[in-house]
Write a structure and sequence with these properties.
Length: 146
Amino acid sequence: MSKAQELDVLNRRQCLDLLQEVRVGRLVFTEDALPAVQPVNFRLWRDDLVIRVAGGAKLAAAADNLVVAFEADELDPDLRTGWSVTVVGHAQPITDIDELVELAGTFLQPWVDGRRDHFVRIRTEKITGRRFREPGLPQYRNAAGD
């Protein structure tokens, strides 16, 4: 018989803190009028997500200010513990020169060869998260006690 886990619903700050711990997530966007999901490396910047793209459908979604979703997680299937965070917000190309300079010097290198000359911001307009933990383990609390 498997052991049941407890589920914690996370607040915005807890979700953002967890996103700082990972570098890869899944971007959900529309391509040719159909849902598309692709893994992307990302970083948090000013509490929004930023990805670096070459162009194509992801850049087109940003240029059109479309709503996209993003999901990242860290799960252990053996222990049945971990967390998952989902972000929903508008995608927007970053074109401000000062912002581009700030991002370019500190951004992760792409995993795939080829130029990635465009930065896309995903506004964290809606963010939800869940943590699965063993019963009896302490719940995550930030400095404010949330």
